[in-house]
Amino acid sequence: MIGRVAWIASLGAIALVATFAQLDRSARFAPQLAASVPAPFRGFAAEQLARQAVLAGDAEASMREARALLRARPMPAEHLALLARANLLAGDGDVALAALQAAAARGWREPFAQRAMAEAALESGDVEIAGQRIAALRSTQAIDREELAELERRLDALRALR
């Protein structure tokens, strides 16, 4: 009898964990589900919550969510870019710049960081870095053609000055 109860309880626990894991996975494509995922199961939901807080312009919530996201998943460049945006909202430009530089170095597919670093390289006159960042933007097709063409024109003008 006790064995049967333990078996049913463990099946129920497995079903609950599987449900929360699936809910977290679904939050990746349905951001409105992110708030319903319990904190220990947040992976994709944590990213959505951080993104929603940044878009809402809530500095405190965006910092809290971005830090929680980085504690859970520190490697993706997208998470560092979210931390940079949250720090910009909070008014901490130095930390935002450091997070942005780390995001750009870590992931060439993250368009926000690559665009910002391309702009910074163009402003400082660093042709090599600007070219690398623009190439990353071109390969991912993350920004529209007009913006990319403008960055390339600025890079060509910078190269002509050298």
Describe this structure in words.
The chain has helices spanning 2-27, 44-56, 59-72, 77-90, 93-106, 111-124, 127-140, 145-161. The chain is mainly α and 162 residues long. It folds into two domains: 1-107, Serine Threonine Protein Phosphatase 5, Tetratricopeptide repeat, CATH 1.25.40; 108-162, no CATH class. It is elongated and about 85 Å long. The mean pLDDT is 89.
Low-confidence segments, given as residue ranges, are none
Largest sheet: none
What is the element string, with H for helices and E for strands?
HHHHHHHH
Shape field: elongated
What can be said about this structure in brief?
The chain is mainly alpha-helical and 162 residues long.
How would you summarize the topology of this molecule?
Layout: H1 2-27, H2 44-56, H3 59-72, H4 77-90, H5 93-106, H6 111-124, H7 127-140, H8 145-161
Keywords:
single chain; 162 residues; 2 domains; mainly alpha; 8 helices; Serine Threonine Protein Phosphatase 5, Tetratricopeptide repeat
